Amino acid sequence: xxxxxxxxxxxxxxxxxxFPTLKEAGLQAGLADNLNGALHFIRKSTPVAVFxxxxxxxxxxxxxxxxxxxxPDFPPIVIFSKGGTADEAQRxxxxxxxxFWLEPLLYEKIKAVLPRNHDPRPEQEPVETARRDAxxxxxxxxxxxxxxxxxxxxxxxxxxxxxxxxxxxARSKATVLISGESGTGKEMFARFLHHHSDxxxxxxxxxxxxxxxxxxxxxxLFGHEKGAxxxxxxxxxxxxxxxxxxxxxLDEITEMDMGLQAKLLRVLQEGEIDRVGGVETVSVxxxxxxxxxxxxxxxxxxxxxxxxxxxxxxxxxxxxPALKERGDDTLLLAEFFVAKYCAAYGxxxxxFSDEAGKWLLEYDWPGNVRELQNLxxxxxxxxxxxxxxxxxxxxxxxxxxxxxxxxxxxETDNTPPETPDEAMSVMPLHEMEKRLxxxxxxxxxxxxxxxxxxLGISVRTLRNxxxxxxxxGLDIP
Length: 477
What we know:
Blueprint: E1 5-9, H1 12-15, H2 19-24, E2 28-32, H3 35-45, E3 49-52, E4 55-56, E5 59-60, H4 61-69, E6 77-81, H5 86-94, E7 99-102, H6 107-113, E8 129-130, E9 140-141, E10 150-152, H7 157-169, E11 176-179, H8 186-195, E12 204-208, H9 214-222, H10 239-242, E13 247-251, H11 258-270, E14 272-274, E15 281-283, E16 287-292, H12 296-301, H13 307-313, E17 316-319, H14 329-344, H15 354-362, H16 368-383, H17 420-423, H18 429-443, H19 448-455, H20 459-471
Helix pairs in contact: 14-16, 18-19, 19-20
C-alpha cells in the first residue's frame, strides 16, 4: 500500500462517506471493526494515523491504546465520537490518544493530524461549489497556483457584492469576519478566500469553537507541552502551528470563552502563541478567518464578547444573505444539487414541475442552503424518474403518499386530531424543556449547532442539557 494510508476502526457507515474525498486527495483508507483486524492492518500497511471509535461490539479503544503504549513506532490514534464529555476526552488522552474529536469527521481535521511529509494535496472544492461543467453557473473565478477552479453559485447582487469584496481582499493577510444565518455557506466563503489567496498551497485548518470546552479548546488552538496537564504524555502542536503559512478558520467564534478570547487577541496582535505548559513563545504566520451566525455586536453590548477582539477580527466584514433573500439563486442552487445527486445515485437528469419550481421560490428556507441541499437529495430519491413534484420535498412526512399504491396496505387511524389545548397539555417546565431539546435534535439530524439555533441558546448550554439528560439514562446520540 501507499505510505499515504490511514486506518479507521469504526462502523463502515460512519466513515465510508469520506473515502472518495480521501482518495481524491491522494490518501488510501483501511477499515477494521475489531482489535485483531486493526493490528493486522497496522503491521501490514503501516498507516500514518488511526482514527478510532471509543467502542464497537467486542472492541474498546482502550485495548488499541494499550498496544500503542507498548510500541514506540505505533501510529498516532485519534478517538472520534458522536458525543462525549471533557472527562471522557481527558481519560483517552491520558491513555495515549493523540486527540479526541466530536463528529462530523472532516477531511481538514484528518489532514491536520498527518505528518507534514504525508500531507496530501489541498482539499478540492467545498459544498456549494461546482466545476466548470456545473449547470447554470455564475460568478466563476479561477483558483491560483494551477489548482482546480471552482465557483460560488449565485447571481443575486447581494452575493456578487460579497464575492467581489472577497476576491479583493483574498490575497491580503487581513482578518475577515464572515457572518450570516446558519446554513448560508460561511465556511464555503472562508475556503474561497483561502483558495484565492497566495496561501492556497498551504494548509487550511478549521476549528469549531463550540465543539470543545474551554480547556480543551485552548490546547486545540495553541497546543501543549508534555506534562502540561494530566494525560499530556507528548507535546501536541495546536491548530495555529498546524496552519503555519496558511489559513485558520475559527468557526462559531462567539461561542469562545471570554478568558480564551483574551489569549486569542494577543496572538492576533503579536503573531505569537504560548503552548499550554510552555515557557517559550512560538512565532506563527497564519491568516485568521472567523465565522458567526449570531449578532456579534449584540454579544459585545451584552458583555459576552470582547469589544477589542471584535474590532481585531472585523477588519474585513463579509455578511452573507439568507437564501430567502437571494431570489432566483434558489433555483440555480436547486438545479445544481439535483444534478449532483442524480449523478451520485446513477439517475438520469431530472427537472422540476412548475408547481415545484414555484414552491422553491416561495418557501422561507429557515435552514438556508444546507436545508435546500438536504431537500434536493430527498427529492431525487423519491422522484426516481421525475419530474420532481412538491410532494417529493416531503416537508410534511405524514401527508406524503407513494406514487404507486398498488399492493400497499395500512391500517387507518380514525382517531380525530388533537385540539391545540390537548396537544399543548400542561406539564412541568423541565419536561417541556427536555421534549423541545430532543425535538430540535431530531429535526436537525443531531446537528447541535443547528439545534441550538432553533432553541435560541448557545451550543455550550445545549451540550450541558444533553449531558444532564444522559445522566438520567436517556440515549442521545
